[in-house]
Amino acid sequence: MKSALEIQFTFLLVALAGAGLVEVLKLKVTGKHLTAQEVFQNMLASGLLAAASSRAEVLQAPATWGGLLVFSKSVAAITFLIYHVSNFVSLVRHGKHLRPVTATMIVGVPYLFGWILLLENQAMLQTFVNAMTGGLLSAWPSVREIVGRLIIVFCFNEAVINLISLATKDRLVQGVKAHLFTLFVSFSVVLSPEIADLGSIAWVGTLPIALRGVIAVITTMLSYAGLWGEVYLITGIVLDGMRLAAPSFETISKNILTGMRKGIWYSAILMGLMYLLTMILSLPLSQLVMKAVPLVIGVLAGAAIFPLLKTIIETFDGSVPFFQRMAFSYRDRILYLRGAVIGFGFSYMVQHHLFEWQMPPRILFGLVIGLIASGGISVLRDAIYAIQGQGRIQSWRLYLIDSFLGMFVGSAGAFYLDSSQVPVVIEKFKLYTTAGFPAVDYITYPLVNKWGRIDLGTYTGGAKLLFQESLAGVINWSIAAWLFAINKVLLQACFEKNTSPIKFFFSKAGFVELMNHMLYVLRWGLWMSPIIFTFLRMMPHATWYNQDGAIRTFVTIFNSATMSPETFQRWSLEVFVWVLAFDFFRVLIWMDHMGLRVATLVNLSFIGMDRLDEKLAKFIGPGASAQRYIPEAVKRFTTWGPLLIPFYLPRGEAWDYAWNTSEAIQNASKSGLVSFLQSLPLTGLALVVGLSILVSSVFSFGIRALIRRSERRRQKTYEMRNHEYRVCVKETGEVYSEVIHKEWFDVTRRAYDLIDPSGRILFVVDSSQAPESMNRYWPV
Length: 780
Hints:
By secondary structure, the chain is α+β, with helices and mostly antiparallel strands. 69% of the residues lie in helices and 6% in strands.
């Protein structure tokens, strides 16, 4: 692995070019030259990135200490681009050069990732700690590894919180308590995998299931506490920084404790329910009774479990505490009746092997069960209330909507539960409630499931598997989070039939909101990933609905309708070969799938379902019992909609063909872009460079034109601020002030409040107008 530093000193040319580029930009935009400090900053940033550029793989763990100073060419190029684009935006929008602390944060990110990736290299950690302690811990390799990891994680956390503090308050984090809390969460997350291992060892697997369950729940709770505390610390501090709130003991401790508390409760409920269900089903008496009267047991179990199931489906980050919602659900007697119908339907499916039926009759059965459980029970409920003189029969519209919702959920559930998927889910649940099986490697590829190999270690039981799936979820979801955020903006614009959300997206406040949404999506990976990994459904047979991507789905629907079955299967297999063979095509399909299909379905469950709820409330009319009618459980059920849709993955001979063909295509086109450019003659290379400069110039001109146009439309605002307080004066005379780090709380009223002449410095009062009139006050 050779870096640019080792291959002559070409990085100096890049450093000079970087400084020259910014000099031209600043002179063109502001009419001023770079200062000596700014020249040094640009040369240092550009040169460092050029020197660090190497043939290392993306997210490759350093093999030596020198490996900390280098990273992949693509990472170096992207960081270089982000730095100079940020500098350009700062010059255009504010007439100021990028601050040194901001430049350090941008350029330092790849080095921070390389530092944290040291956790994969156990040999380096042990050698490092052995050298630090003078060999005192040579007899305890596990202790050396833990100490090494603690140093790595603690330094990483300290770097993050102090950089954000410098960016927001121009000073390092103050107070010993803040650093002690950072050390505490660092130690917790370092111990988390070890604690999860304790709940997965062979000795635990030999214990009775009740005792094994207690140990598994406790170890899962403690391991999740460290992991969730770490993730909430980093994301929480960044979210606070977006609001210009610097890290402090209060914010650091609040974020850590919030994450730990949520992780403990989530893991305890999830693992506890799985072990409780396993213990009940494994009892000989339970098995005997279920075989004797399966339908009766199905009805009773459905009635008892349905309120709990409803509570679980409704659970989301930021929802009301779990047990409070569960108590409310169990007080609703109608849920027992709905659950009894669903329990009967499920037990009937098991008894009569309906999972093996073809899809249409299976969906029809689920549709009927859903109709009875929703519309049928609602009619029965209101009829009983009417007889008792406590109510009346509602509008037919209400029962129609109720029935459609039940039919949708019932048919979707029956569609998912087929003979190939049910055993997969059962086997996964068995893994979660088992300990002491042979060690299995857990490796994830967060970059489009192909690049960025990260080894998360091995697992020998359910406690460690659950921990690793949550960790992998955070890593993987961090890559796709921006697609969800952008998709949400576009959906809002579509529903509002207005371009305001898109215009807001390109503003500074819009960027902050984008980052906020990205970080919240990243947190979803903590609790959604184990569920996703459990319920994902694979199909070896191609259909119109099981191929990744939204655009690809529309093309697939057309081809499925116009091609013969054999031709359609061949076409689907060829597309899969393209995904394996061509990296650019794989990336496009991934963006199409995550950004258009999955993100749209997930965001529709929030934005779209709320709009649908409003439409349904108007359709039902004033006789409806509430302004919002769709149950929260149904809304959140649609959030998990992507899980119900299978994904196409060839098997057997089809897989062998796809793999071998894609390998042959890749081997035949190893040259790549760099080799192509190197093969060009000097005139051809000059032409490519000239075209690149022309395209970049046109793009830059277009961006600047749009910015100038928006500046002309934007109302001028003058402000005075520090890190705590801001006073703004608009060109219309409106003035207002706000506290920044209290989530931008207004101290004075805005003009649109219409209380007195709110926010006006100088105004005229028309005494002939009524006090509540909007035309009573006129600003000067």
